[in-house]
Amino acid sequence: LQIDINTTFNLKKEIPSDRIVVSESGIKTYRDVIKLQEYGIDAMLIGTAFMESPDIGKKIDELKSRL
Q: What string of pLDDT tens digits covers the 67 residues of the chain?
């Protein structure tokens, strides 16, 4: 299984503008969150980044620190 955040950007072009777009994979950094927001993504499902982090609370703080 290959996880690539760019899949969201590629698929967004095909989704009607009246639909809610959720990015569901590949989000690992604050920069990823910002890129998705700037591209008009409505919501994000973050899983692997939390599961791989030794400190989930710290990872949450990192991802939302400047939102």
A: 678 899 999 999 999 999 999 999 889 999 999 999 999 999 999 998 999 999 999 999 998 886 7
SS (H, E, C) 47-62: CHHHHHCCCHHHHHHH
- Indicate the pTM of the whole model: 0.82
Question: HSE-up of 13 (CA within 13 Å, CB side)?
Answer: 4
Q: Is residue 22 part of a domain?
A: yes
Asked if residue 41 is part of any domain, the answer here is yes
Domains in the chain, number: 1
Q: In terms of residue numbers, what domain contains 60?
A: 6-64
Cα→Cα distances 54→10, 11, 36, 43, 59, Å: 31, 32, 24, 24, 9
d(CA 49, CA 67): 18
